[in-house]
Design goal:
The structure holds two protein chains of two kinds. By secondary structure, chain A is mainly α. In chain A, 69% of the residues lie in helices and 0% in strands. The longest helix of chain A has 35 residues. Chain B is of the alpha/beta class. Chain B has two domains: 208 residues, D-Maltodextrin-Binding Protein, domain 2 (3-Layer(aba) Sandwich); 182 residues, D-Maltodextrin-Binding Protein, domain 2 (3-Layer(aba) Sandwich), CATH 3.40.190.10. Chain B is built from 20 helices and 13 strands. In chain B, a hairpin with a 2-residue loop joins strand 4 and strand 5. Classes of the chains: A mainly alpha, B alpha/beta. At the A-B interface, helix 5 and helix 12 of A face helix 1, helix 5 and helix 19 of B.
Chain lengths: 326, 435
């Protein structure tokens, strides 16, 4: 924010600087205002109206759309699926990201190859990856082929068509039946997409963590080893604490990204099939806006999504502050 | 590419597009030569009266892959020769058609003439987005009875007509004659015969004979055949709680739970047509889009075509169609009408017939079409009794909900009674009834 004239400039030179600063950011500011700030403002506004997009805007609803939303069973389903998705994906992808970074940071042969190989999915189009995974998850796809070869048999119905909750299935094998939908866990279909998502993102997290690792001074490790700390102690007492800001950054981005998940659902399980077990909040926005002719309701979902993500951010920031990092 | 689209045959239009994309160039060469000789301009519809006062520019929007665009271009060439006063710009919307056309309408900037699929026609008509064309039709001497009735029904709303169908397809049966012969069965014509035939075929071939997915737009086959419906004709009441729907749901689910039908994903296919092409089943209930697929992916495969078996209330099948409609905000409605009547009239429709991607909407062209594609007679015959696939305004989100209900039923999580109750609830929550 260096270019912003926060106070009245004291001398002509500073004024000139300020003008130059504004000139430099003007093009970006115009683009951002037109395509980011204005649409965001509109989302909040439209969420208070009834509007089918193809008609003139309907009457002012106040919080009517939000009331409708909180009674809508689809909203509950989507919220549940999204939470399962996020809670499943973010910790695992972060953990794997750290693990990969630590491994790729060692002086092992072919280090560069592994770095590139793990990073590769992150720079590929998510749609392309989703299409490939549709094939992998097919009934006679590669994953089932490997399972058959290992003697596990073929899961039925196939991965992306199985609406049964994984925790429900697990409990069922212990004789516990009829758990509530919230406890049933993600469906096999949603889990399949979660696994793909983890595989896709862990590479980019690895790169971020690598940068973080290289920012940790060697002196610390040297001092620790002089004090007799073993590798494991060094990892938990030095590496992890020093990486904490990076972990905060990565998990925050992770929650934002997973709460907005849309494209993979759109490609792999359109309509949130099977049985709406992959219907997420992001997908519900699309469904209500463009197939349900309810733009106001769709914007209300987007506002709720925004509120959820914002509160996650604040909660996380609080945690970090309490652990004395900032 | 066709993978994602065809995986879920819920989106029939996508399959049509996907199969059109692969629809062989082989067929076109030979057949179009045959057609070129016989196309004589004076064959049917009179030249438009409205055209005498129409001129200027019109924009046309549609969704076409390479072949689809080629067809439209050929049609527009014919139009330019016939109506030189009107110039047409074609705007292709290759993906997410419904999203893009809605945003264009919201911006007041939609094309003068655009595609309207039966699935969302009622959503558009009930919101006054389309121009009623009854006056233009009267002026030009075009009557609704020139088209198959179910297709006209799809674009009729509260007594007015909002578009003319450009092409269509019902669901018919495509089967493997060799498998039928070796099992000693003939094409079944009733629900009971269908069950017996499927059982005999399964005993004979060792695999499930029919691929049928838990999609609402396949379930409606049985619902129409049992005499059931989603709403009454005026869309003033939900009628999904009728005993006819119960009967259809029980029959549909029993085919699956008794192992007489299988879902395409369970047997390792992308969609039912794919299962048939791969030889995984000996019969499918699919639309005209089966034929380009077969031609491209299994040109040597022998197949036979039949009308669907009849239900307790007689024959029934869903009709999928697409119309050209005029944007209510069009600045040049006269010229837009001239273009619409040309594209949906005999001249325009003839251009697409040799491609074989869809059926002609005009019964008058039946003879010409069957000369090109004689095996498709059972499909055209459905024009007599098909029902346009429409669930009322809000029908699209209803369809999403209904598909989820059927998937839950097939997963064994609910029974038929509960499934019907959930279908009724989904209809009540999504479909906007007329008051």
């Amino acid at each position: 924010m260096a270019g912003f004239p926060s106070r009245k400039p004291r001398n002509p030179l500073a004024a000139e600087d300020a003008i130059a600063g504004w000139l430099f950011i003007t093009p970006a500011l115009i683009v951002l205002t037109l395509f980011v700030f204005w649409p965001i403002f509109q989302v909040f506004r439209v969420s208070l109206f009834e509007w089918s997009l193809i008609e003139a805007r309907g009457p002012f609803q106040g919080f009517g759309n939000f009331r409708t939303l909180f009674q809508d069973p689809d909203f509950e389903i989507a919220l549940r699926n999204t939470i399962w998705f996020s809670v499943g994906v973010v910790p695992i992808q972060t953990f794997l990201g750290v693990l990969l970074a630590v491994l790729a940071n060692r002086a092992i042969p072919g280090k560069t190859f592994f770095r590139v190989a793990f990073y590769f999915p992150s720079i590929s189009s998510s749609v392309v990856i989703a299409v490939i995974f549709i094939w992998l998850y097919q009934q006679n796809g590669l994953i089932n082929y490997v399972l058959r070869w290992l003697g596990f048999g073929t899961p039925q119905p196939p991965w992306l068509s199985n609406p049964n909750g994984v925790i429900d299935m697990l409990l069922g094998s212990f004789g516990v039946d009829n758990v509530t939908p919230w406890l049933a866990g993600p469906s096999v279909a949603l889990l399949s997409i979660m696994m793909m998502n983890i595989w896709t993102t862990m590479g980019s997290l690895m790169v971020i963590f690598l940068a973080g690792l290289q920012g940790i001074s060697e002196d610390l490790y040297e001092a620790a080893s002089l004090d007799g700390a073993n590798k494991r102690q060094q990892f938990f007492q030095i590496t992890i604490p020093m990486l904490r800001p990076v972990i905060f950054f990565v998990t925050t981005l992770g929650f934002i990204g997973t709460f907005q998940v849309f494209d993979q659902i759109f490609v792999m399980t359109p309509g949130g099939s099977p049985a709406k077990t992959t219907l997420t909040l992001g997908y519900l926005v699309y469904e209500e806006a463009f197939r349900g002719f309810a733009m106001g309701l769709a914007c209300a979902i987007a506002v709720v999504l925004f509120a959820i993500i914002l509160s996650i951010y604040f909660i996380q920031r609080r945690f970090i502050r309490e652990s004395g990092l900032e | 590419m066709s993978m994602r689209k065809s995986r879920y045959s819920a989106s029939r239009r996508s399959i049509l597009k996907a199969s059109a994309a692969i629809g062989g160039t082989g067929i076109i060469g030979s057949r179009s030569a045959a057609l070129a000789q016989e196309a004589s301009p004076a064959a049917s519809a009179p030249v438009s009266v409205v055209a005498e006062r129409a001129s200027g520019e019109v924009r046309l929007a549609g969704a076409g892959d390479a072949i689809g665009q080629e067809i439209i271009q050929a049609q527009l060439d014919g139009f330019a020769a016939m109506y030189p006063n009107i110039s047409v710009t074609f705007e292709n919307i290759p993906a997410e058609y419904l999203v893009q056309i809605q945003t264009a309408i919201a911006a007041g900037n939609a094309a003068d003439v655009f595609f309207v699929q039966n699935e969302f026609a009622q959503d558009f008509m009930s919101r006054d987005v389309l121009l009623p064309i009854d006056d233009y039709m009267a002026e030009d001497g075009i009557t609704a009875d020139m088209y198959y009735e179910p297709l006209i029904n799809a674009y009729t709303w509260q007594g007015a007509l909002y578009g003319l169908p450009k092409d269509w397809s019902p669901i018919g049966a495509v089967y493997d004659p060799a498998a039928f012969e070796s099992a000693g069965v003939t094409m079944p014509t009733t629900w009971d015969e269908l069950r017996t035939a499927l059982q005999t075929l399964k005993d004979s071939t060792g695999s499930t004979a029919l691929a049928l997915d838990p999609n609402f737009d396949r379930f409606v086959i049985f619902m129409y055949q049992a005499g059931g419906s989603i709403t009454n004709e005026d869309v003033t009441a939900i009628t999904l709680d009728s005993p006819e729907v119960t009967q259809a749901l029980e029959y549909f689910y029993a085919l699956y739970s008794d192992g007489l039908s299988a879902t395409s994903v369970d047997i390792g296919a992308g969609w039912p047509g794919d299962a048939f092409v791969q030889g995984l089943t000996s019969m499918v209930f699919e639309g005209n889009w089966m034929f380009p697929t077969l031609n491209d992916q299994a040109p040597d495969k022998a197949f036979a075509v039949a009308e669907l078996p009849q239900g307790p209330a007689g024959p029934g099948t869903p009709a999928f169609t697409q119309a050209y409609s005029i944007f209510a905000g069009s600045q040049n409605p006269d010229a837009a009408w001239v273009l619409t009547q040309y594209l949906t009239g005999a001249e325009g429709v003839r251009v697409m017939m040799p491609y074989g991607l869809a059926l002609p909407p005009l019964p008058a062209l039946e003879g010409e079409f069957l000369e090109l594609w004689p095996e498709r007679a059972p499909y055209l015959a459905a024009g007599e009794y098909a029902t346009s696939v429409q669930y009322g305004p809000g029908g699209q989100t209803f369809a999403t909900d209904a598909n989820a209900v059927l998937q839950t039923l097939f997963a064994g999580q609910i029974d038929v009674t509960e499934a019907q109750a959930q279908l009724v609830a989904a209809a009540e929550a999504n479909i906007t009834l007329n008051r």
